[in-house]
Protein 1
Amino acid sequence: MAALSLPSWLKRGEAPASCQTALSRQPSLEAAVEEVAKALGNRGANDLALVFCSTSYASDLPRLLPLLRSRLNARHWIGCAGGGVVGTDASGQARELEQQPALSVTLLRLPGADLQLFELDPASLPDLDGDNLDWINWVGADPERARSMLLFVDPTCQKINDLISGLDYAYPSAAKVGGIAGHHSAEHGSLLFDGRVLTGAVGCLIGGAWRLDPVVAQGCRPIGPVFEIEQAERNVVLQLSSGAQTNSPVNCLQGILQSLTPAEREQVRHSLFLGVARSNFSLPGDSCQAEPTAFLVRNLLGVDPRNGAVAVAEKLRVGQQVQFQLRDAAASRQELRQLLRRQARTDDAPLVALLFACLGRGEGLYGQPDGDVSVCREQFPQVPIAGAFCNGEIGPVAGTTHLHGYTASWGFLVPNHDDDGVPPAAARAEG
């Protein structure tokens, strides 16, 4: 029999992987910290603490991490304030808590993990046309050791899209998941990093024996055919084609409306978006329906009634493929369910699921609380869930990281087989 190759952390006799979670709705910061700390206890050293709180605590935010660090033991601390909180309480119940005081803390023991934390000042962004080494040196983390990235950005940050593009440039093999933190009126920022509150951006590169598997659910379903852009000026689409027919975007949409139900036509009035293909995966007029997640869903900003052109929240080019999209609760559930089923078919159960959801989702989209986490529970009934409601969600579509809206950007923390050839054993989740 061939000898088994044991992972290096197991050879060293390290403790097994674990995830401890706690959630509090106490209105005062001290009471929330007390409840969370009591639920988590003092169960030895942890590698990473993830902290998400609502902006209800904004004025007290600088006191949050010092209070937690005095009660709990973790080597690294990272998180943000958001418009809402996602968390799992001591009983294992996952919740989405919107527009109310809430604190979610997750402690992770990750044997074999290679964690590189960083803080960035986007006011001094390197040149996107320069050497990627400039970006690597600016971040100060080794791309060879990174397989995934958690990224949180303060809402006051400028050039967020340039920042995301630059991080893709410097760390192309790292799947990036995260979001834009919540707005508040206090003078300090919304980002939590070690013992401080920061503006700019903070992140954690994850490598070694662990990685984040991203799942990006944009909450829309396509309507009508896939079109090809024939004329465009920056973010304005002037002409579309489908097969041999060319027309303005408005005329194309009017043709689609004829095939919709009365309810769908009503949705078009307030829930219409445009999906922009990341690659030309089908020919115009192809009968095969495009995969929804291959599109980057973008807002329609306006219509020019003179020529039927539409303005889109994305720079466009001739030859790019687009498809109109409708956003509704049923489409969101269906897409998320399909993506999570695919994730559940992977070899390893996740230690924790991280959710960064748009403020436009939640109860406003689903008409009831816990809409996204309840779909996740269908495939992962025992996995702890944590995260925040964001002002923009970060996640990959077709291999490139984007800033999204109305999206649920998930990161599933799973064992990484590339480190030693064997995944971490005996991983367990604790309430």
Protein 2
Amino acid sequence: MIKGDNAFVPTVPLRVAVRGGLDALALLVTEGGRARGDGDIVFHGAPVHPSGAVRLLGDEAGTAWLEIALPAVEEAIGRVVVVGSTETGAMRDAYGASVEAFAPDGTSVARYDVTDAGGETAMVLAELYRRAGGWKFRAVGQGYVNGLAGLVTDHGVDVADAEQTPQPVHTPPVHSAPPVHTPPPFQAPGPVPAQAPVPFQVPAPVAAQAPAPVPFQAPPQDPVSFQAPPVGQVPVPPVAPVPAGVPATAAPRWVYGAGFEPYAQSGRDNDVITVNGLPPGPVIVELSVRGDGYTGLWPLTRFNKEGDTLVNSCEENFRGRVLTLVPGNGRLRLQLKAEGRWQLRVLPLAAATLLTEEELEGGGPDVLLHTGGTADLALHYRGDDNLIVNFYELAEHDDPTELPTDDNAVNEIGKRRETVPLPEGPVLVQLEMADGPWRARLKDLQPHSGPPDAHGVAKVTDIRAGRGRSWWGRS
């Protein structure tokens, strides 16, 4: 996700990773954005909320973990704010700062990488907020140069004896890129015995030291293989509430593709990216480029020849997500042409944004997912170039290493308002070309015709992956 993006997440207990060596903190606030008191702030001095719904687990190799049990959050709470802060230095010095939410089985459901931090010493990284009977994740990225004191005061917390002045900037010593870690085992939350809340104390400022140059450290080159959780150790998550006006059998369903830890790499200008150890089959490639020149992206064949074009854009500060296939040997190679700094991630199909009757906003190519019954897809495109939209029907497709033949739904130039019919899900909706802002939502959404499962949710497909895990499923 990029700053400002939002997406539905399943109403289940989530584990949230705050990376980059940052201290993690959570604020539980009302719809008005205000905490009810010191008891609504979860930090090292009070690591468990009185309701038991939010817990601070501690740090592990530069990653701080929070548990946020969304079904247990009190009705009076409208948002759970996830905060990262520095003990020394500024947010811009935090290498690999990001926030990522995981479902109970370890599937990543939302992630935001901080790319524009400055001299702030504390930042609202993300927030989980109620919407249409469920929960959404928003990438926020709002920094505070006056640190935690200013941030928590802004959310209604009375800081005891807090310094309101900015903390001095200190560059941390040279270190290697932080390793990727899987979420810690989930512990079912329980209520905490009533006790007086611990007043929140802002950490004392650290004396400034002369900064030393920090050489660029490349991110890890190999993704961490997905490890399925042991049988019997993963709690069965409850079914997410159905948004108002949506038939029960058309409720949004969480979808799992061939599982693997997202791979990330950053660099500058033209490059060739190699990712080893991926499961063969379709994946999502997310690319952002800061620059005003040409951006092009192609997969490379085993003969090092360019495959079909994935990105062909002259847009300034390009951002987009595209589909490509990982070969049978699990080695994906991509040729990138760019002018400026870039970030690239390889993601499982589970990262596709779920289509609902609530309007999505985006810009650039993207990969969306429809899981309900028949519906109409309403698109409003405000770009000046080509708009190309393809559908991939997956319900009868039984080969997880390939995509079915696509159905071209839109191929137009310039600003457009289009409404096109969608078949029953699961359907991948690919905005292959969309160099400009767009909006999308479902209309006239119908119940899925498949028989309901034990939870009353319509079954979509029986596709199985070669590794014995469900390729498409629901949580």
